[in-house]
Amino acid sequence: MSKRIKKVVCLGGGTGVSVVLSGLKKYPIDLTAVVTMFDSGGSSGKLRKELGILPLGDVRQCLVVLSAENNLAPLFYYRFGKGGLRGHNLGNLLIAAAIEATGSLDRAVDKIAKI
């Protein structure tokens, strides 16, 4: 008898959902995250106002946690300290660029999830 992989869906936002995903990713399951997008400050707020996109911070956290390449996490969290990019973190900028390049948040997340 073959074993079926269980499917688990996590719903939430903020730090909580990324913490839960971090704990679940070590199990042999098909893991899906549905992430709320209510952040209004910092880099997410600026990108929302300037580009008209949804806040990206919580999605970025989940992408980093679920990534197979944990060595990229510091780059996704890197926050610029001066100049025109002051306050932005590289992960949000990368997702914003992927949204513009692909035309949608869904396709952008799919592309970045493969990094």
UniProtKB/TrEMBL annotation:
SUPFAM superfamilies: CofD-like (SSF142338). It comes from the Bacteria. One of its GO terms (molecular function) is LPPG:FO 2-phospho-L-lactate transferase activity. Gene3D superfamilies: CofD-like domains. InterPro entries: CofD (IPR002882), CofD-like_dom_sf (IPR038136), Gluconeogen_factor (IPR010119). Pfam families: CofD. PANTHER family: GLUCONEOGENESIS FACTOR-RELATED, UNCHARACTERIZED PROTEIN YVCK-RELATED. It comes from Candidatus Nealsonbacteria bacterium CG_4_10_14_0_2_um_filter_39_15. The keyword Cytoplasm applies. The lineage of its organism: Bacteria, Candidatus Nealsoniibacteriota. This is YvcK family protein. Keywords: Cytoplasm.
